[in-house]
């Protein structure tokens, strides 16, 4: 590949991230399946476990489109895993919250999730695992800071 060293680093970072995304999606599907969830359903229910959120808020947190979250949220409500509640801050943007069945489904995932986390921590070491999280969070913040998310422009 031709280009600057920075372009090479960006390309390698992107390719590595795409591969990680695929790996995380595959393992998430595997963990979620016995609980009757898909990875996407688990992701949306997980986003509202601690506090109800509007669909747009879930989408911002997850970095995906509002329409994708809306489709999944509606499915979760139909399946009885989540419900819509009134939003005191915005009449039209209802809040999504898990039902007890949704919470129970996520609880069934926790043992496999904990086992995978322990195996990764053992493979990487606690300090390197924490550093990985820090670097990924820093990269995400840097992409937002340079305006790369939503509008790629010439320098």
From TrEMBL:
SMART domains: HTH_MARR. Residues 6-141 form the HTH marR-type domain. PROSITE patterns: HTH_MARR_2 (PS50995). Pfam families: MarR_2. InterPro entries: HTH_MarR-typ, MarR/SlyA-like, WH-like_DNA-bd_sf, WH_DNA-bd_sf. Gene3D superfamilies: Winged helix-like DNA-binding domain superfamily/Winged helix DNA-binding domain (1.10.10.10). This is MarR family transcriptional regulator.
């Amino acid at each position: 590949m031709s280009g600057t060293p920075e372009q090479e680093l960006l390309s390698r970072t992107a390719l590595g991230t795409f591969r990680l995304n695929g790996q995380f999606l595959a393992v998430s599907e595997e963990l979620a399946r016995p609980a009757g969830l898909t990875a996407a359903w688990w992701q949306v229910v997980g986003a509202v476990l601690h506090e109800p959120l509007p669909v747009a808020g879930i989408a911002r947190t997850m970095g995906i489109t509002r329409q994708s979250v809306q489709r999944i949220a509606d499915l979760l409500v139909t399946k009885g895993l989540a419900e819509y509640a009134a939003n005191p801050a915005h009449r039209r943007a209802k809040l999504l919250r898990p039902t007890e069945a949704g919470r129970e489904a996520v609880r069934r995932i926790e043992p496999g999730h904990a086992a995978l986390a322990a195996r990764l921590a053992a493979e990487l070491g606690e300090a390197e695992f924490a550093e990985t999280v820090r670097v990924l969070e820093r990269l995400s913040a840097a992409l937002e800071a340079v305006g790369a998310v939503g509008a790629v422009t010439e320098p």
